[in-house]
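Two records follow; treat each independently.
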Amino acid sequence: MVRLKTLLARAPALLEGSDSPGSDMEVLLAHVLQQPRARLLCHAEQVLSLSQCRFLFQLLARRRAGCPVALLTGLWGFWSLELLVEPCTLIPRPDTESLVEQALLLCDEAPRRVLDLGTGTGAIALALACERPHWQVQGCDCMPEAVALAQRNAVRTGLDRVEFFKSDWFAALNCGARFDLIVSNPPYVASGDVHLSRGDLRFEPSSALVSGADGLDDIKRITAEAPAWLAEQGWLVLEHGYQQGAGVRSIMQAHGLVAVTTARDLAGHERVTAGRLPARRRRDPVSF
């Protein structure tokens, strides 16, 4: 007989190596018991059945081996949404909520056309659509599995008006399409970064993480192509590494974007850079 309170108390020992054993244990217990996490402490005397114990200890073993909690449960919270997650995509990070916040600050609530590049789970597109019901939001990804996952998340969250489609960045867009806001959390990890062999990153697709020797290859490509797809005075908003802010600002300015600024994440690191396509210059009428 194993009670909830015993498992919660022994979390540090049972999840040795985890940065957050107490939180991990709560999430896994809630998953095993199929009940809200908040209910655990109110029912701390509850005893797990034999089958529940077996399932839990299988999950704990996988977590000790480094498998992210999100992949163990298949669910993860982002913004105000609970999303399905799979190994084919990145797990949405709290840092990326800074990108959503910045996009909402830059654009008012008037109807907007929005494109989320490399949408993965659909987290960014769905968060924006949740906050701005009048926006027309689309998301694309080069991986068919990611597109299918994002579509399932759209249905799950009741935001199935968001359109997801397969595209290698801008490649599959209709000629003449223009967007008031283009957002992306592209790959931005350098190919030799030691973090790729540590922690959760070992279980996530390298194609969604790595972007050349300095981590900026995809950011350079997106920024070079984005002006052709932005509406007049439209915004490009990109997430990047905490040491890449100056480089991304320089890239955006080199491609003619103006009002380039960088926002910091909750840890105080430079995380999201935005630039705007300038208004077209109008020629004054010629007088004779």
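The next record belongs to a different protein.
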Amino acid sequence: MLTMKDIIREGNPILREVAQEVTAPLSEEDIALGNEMLTFLKNSQDPEIAEKYGLRGGVGLAAPQLAISKRIIALLVPSNNPEKPEPLLNTVMYNPKIVSHSVQSACLADGEGCLSVDREVPGYVVRHARVTVEYTDIEGNKQKIRLKNYPAIVVQHEIDHLNGVMFYDHIASPNPFALPEDVLVLE
């Protein structure tokens, strides 16, 4: 079972590398890794398990955060709609690639956090409000998915990890709360 001690922290050079493509067909090892990453996210969102093992809650995890330079991300974005409790996103993506995106930009009102960053980093992280992502799923099938708002931001954060980019690289300096016009601020 993956725990916080398996997640490397900022400063580790692997987090700044471009991860390697995963070969098709998927290896047993890559499938098992994807499943472990998704299990970590499920555990991190379960209050009892998270407390027992000292897990910080996460909605996304990239293989480079485990010191594995492979283009694999796991996503588990919970729904905040009690009438539709199933997650907005619950998948593992191999070799994900953003193939199109909106002109409209968006950011989270509270900024972003990261399991590899043990500190608060204040500021708006401006990203695309909508993205279309192509990837291979855990069964080895090609998929194409359109995401908007929070799920789109989560997938962009994780794909950034595959390219050696940290979320705070997107924060404007010297004014971290400066926003270009027409940016959608998501609560």
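Discussion point: The helical segments are 28-45, 47-53, 149-162. How would you locate this feature using only the token line?
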